[in-house]
């Protein structure tokens, strides 16, 4: 995967460097780094000297205080178990390990907060103060909550909000299909409609709902 740092207001994209080669000269201490991935976006705060503070689910801090083991790159197994156990850590990794082969956006969220952006040094200091083990919640305390608190002073997560809206929409759609089935069955009982002509029409959406 080619990696290309993108700067807000730069007017275009830089030429993609070789895989794993990141130009950190365009990053400033306190910058918010954003890495779009397949199903989600990962966030971190740049601390300078090729170091990124970011919150990651991790089960290992629940079993050991050995910083040498904890500081090793988080595997998928550690991450998934951390999500299940609701355990995470705010850790520092290199830009390469943080981005994991993805393209990096720099301060891309600033446009959403306008005058709420804190000073770069304040954002970096907030990130450093939160270093260590913490509780994890997909809805209330994820990597996006961490960076928005550090850079904008308020922990929010837009991708969590979007996820919740999608779930609500699915629930509403399924309820509407179920309601139409119940109304159809009620019409058969109350109006005495012929089952041979009515039932197939009613149960088609019901079977589709069950299959979904």
TrEMBL record:
Disordered, as annotated region: 1-22
Catalytic activity: 1,2-dihexadecanoyl-sn-glycero-3-phosphocholine + all-trans-retinol = all-trans-retinyl hexadecanoate + 2-hexadecanoyl-sn-glycero-3-phosphocholine; 1,2-diheptanoyl-sn-glycero-3-phosphocholine + all-trans-retinol--[retinol-binding protein] = all-trans-retinyl heptanoate + 2-heptanoyl-sn-glycero-3-phosphocholine + apo--[retinol-binding protein]; 1,2-didodecanoyl-sn-glycero-3-phosphocholine + all-trans-retinol--[retinol-binding protein] = 2-dodecanoyl-sn-glycero-3-phosphocholine + all-trans-retinyl dodecanoate + apo--[retinol-binding protein]; all-trans-retinol--[retinol-binding protein] + a 1,2-diacyl-sn-glycero-3-phosphocholine = apo--[retinol-binding protein] + an all-trans-retinyl ester + a 2-acyl-sn-glycero-3-phosphocholine
Top-level taxonomy: Eukaryota, Metazoa, Chordata, Craniata, Vertebrata
A Gene Ontology term for the protein's cellular component: perinuclear region of cytoplasm
EC class of the enzyme, as a word: transferase
Protein's name in the database: Lecithin retinol acyltransferase
Pfam families with a match to the protein in the record: LRAT
Function of the molecule: Transfers the acyl group from the sn-1 position of phosphatidylcholine to all-trans retinol, producing all-trans retinyl esters. Retinyl esters are storage forms of vitamin A. LRAT plays a critical role in vision. It provides the all-trans retinyl ester substrates for the isomerohydrolase which processes the esters into 11-cis-retinol in the retinal pigment epithelium; due to a membrane-associated alcohol dehydrogenase, 11 cis-retinol is oxidized and converted into 11-cis-retinaldehyde which is the chromophore for rhodopsin and the cone photopigments.
The EC number(s) this enzyme carries: 2.3.1.135
Membrane topology: Single-pass membrane protein
Keywords noted in UniProt: Acyltransferase, Cytoplasm, Endoplasmic reticulum, Endosome, Lipid metabolism, Membrane, Sensory transduction, Transferase, Transmembrane, Transmembrane helix, Vision
Family annotation (InterPro entries): LRAT (IPR042288), LRAT_dom (IPR007053)
Annotated GO MF terms: phosphatidylcholine-retinol O-acyltransferase activity
Active site as annotated: 143 (acyl-thioester intermediate)
Naturally occurring in which organism (per UniProt): Manacus vitellinus (golden-collared manakin)
GO biological process: retinol metabolic process; visual perception; vitamin A metabolic process
Entry's transmembrane regions: 177-210
């Amino acid at each position: 995967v080619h990696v290309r740092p993108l700067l807000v207001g730069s007017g275009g994209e830089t030429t993609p460097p070789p895989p794993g080669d990141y130009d950190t000269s365009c990053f400033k201490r306190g910058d918010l780094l954003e890495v779009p991935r397949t199903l989600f976006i990962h966030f971190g705060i740049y601390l300078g000297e090729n170091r990124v503070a970011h919150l990651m689910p991790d089960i290992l801090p629940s079993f050991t205080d050995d910083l040498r083991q904890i500081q090793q790159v988080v595997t998928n197994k550690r991450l998934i178990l951390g999500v299940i156990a609701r355990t995470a850590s705010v850790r520092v990794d290199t830009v390469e390990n943080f981005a994991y082969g993805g393209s990096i956006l720099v301060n891309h969220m600033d446009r959403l907060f306008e005058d709420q952006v804190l000073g770069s040094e304040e954002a970096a200091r907030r990130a450093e103060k939160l270093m260590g083990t913490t509780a994890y919640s997909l809805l209330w305390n994820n990597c996006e909550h961490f960076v928005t608190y550090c850079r904008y002073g308020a922990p929010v997560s837009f991708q969590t909000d979007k996820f919740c809206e999608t779930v609500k929409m699915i629930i509403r759609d399924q309820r509407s299909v179920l309601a139409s089935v119940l109304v159809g069955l009620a019409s058969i009982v109350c109006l005495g409609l012929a089952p041979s002509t009515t039932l197939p029409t009613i149960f088609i959406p019901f079977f589709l709902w069950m299959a979904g």
